[in-house]
Amino acid sequence: MKRTTLSLIAGTTALAAVTGFAALTAPDASGGDTAKAAARLPVERTSLLCPQPSTSDLAETAYTSFTPVSKGTGSGGRAELRPAAGKSGDGAGGDEKKEKREAEPVLSPKEPGKPVTADASGADGSALVGTAEGAFAPGWAVQQTTEVAAGIGRGLLGADCTAPDTEFWFPGAGTGDDRTDYVHLTNPDDSAAVVDIELYGKDGALKSTVGEGITVQPHAGEAILLSTLADAPQTDLTVHVTVRSGRVAAAVQALDDKLGGDWLPAAADPAAGLVLPGIPKDATSVRLIAFTPGDTDADLKVRLASPSGSITPAGHETLHVKAGMTAAVDLGDVTRGEAGSLVLTAGGDPVPVVAALRVVRGKGDKRETAFIPATAPVAARATVADNRAKGTTLALAAPGRTAEVKVTASAGSEGGKAVTKTFTIKGGTTQNVAAPVPSGLRGRYALTVEPLSGGPVYASRTLEAPVEGVPAFTVQTLPDDRGTVAVPRAEQDLSVLQKQ
Fold it and tell me: pTM of the full predicted structure?
């Protein structure tokens, strides 16, 4: 093989292992697909960004960082989260001691397989920018959990820190009289990012130029109040964030005067079939919000994957979503005291949609809110950090064929040994499984989910922590961690690329 061909293979392999964004394949000489011959290697670098946790003086925020042990990574590397600059971090203009303190890492794990934690109080917390390399990169997960005792958005607000990207969909936001929602944007790079924010209500796109060309400074966070982008209050909105230049992480902080608040994560990419896993069994109200970005209406079939099988919610068999308009429907106590996941499929033409659930627990003035966006299945592995001895519920859904799943509880952040259990999830069902807990647990721990056989598996974790008599909770979905990337094997002859 020519030297140029060898160099191309080496370069391609290095690029794929570092970025982890896409599988790289090459055609063989006959034009056939050689994807089956690709090897999977651990990613070598990962970025995560955390939004500013709260502006409340009563906020108490817990951070938990964890990287599962991966084969083929070696023993080197590092991971750390540092405060962002800009408005969220307020890193400029302070005295020298303050600047020095803010420059120090908030979290710096010592080894894969063991969580590390940190805590912050009040409104001083900033957005965080994090990077993991080497053995710390594949599957790196960071959770920030904020407890707010009183005031707007009181309750438990949980957010998975996420990787930067260039497009995000948030069905379920609002600018109603009781809502104060913010879009948080965090830029990890050395150059400014330029972002557009579009809002879609029940009648279509909201006309506004305020959301165009928003600049997010390098290594900085920016919080945009949604009501400043809308002329009139809107109960149900779909927020579309696109990046003209650069990359950002994005999340919506949804705060309600009466129903508490939580983070609304980005929904899965538009698709004709969606799964929203892990509705708490004691949910008193469930609201489905959906949007189709194309120019064709969507008629969605609504099914509930319950512990006993797939059923159609009475009176809510379908949902019609007009093109370019946000549709919403109250499903009430759709789970009727059992675990459940909502499964949406497009009837007729496969029209792509995005969707999320707004879930309420409690009654009267003791209600609290969380969100469940449509999510991707766990293809190989997914991890959620910040689990506790009490108040952790893991939901596993197999909307298609029966699946076998391995769940591993990591060591505790302050002590304890990892424990693993295997579960069989019957096709068409959702199960709240008895998630393993580390033996001798002290501190917080992580849960890692790995499908072993069968059909696709979708997962979410509910964390409960009562606040002043309110059944405060937060739900995080577990999409695949994309800890490995497909790369061509060294024996593949890519000389065909030289001829193209």
Answer: 0.88
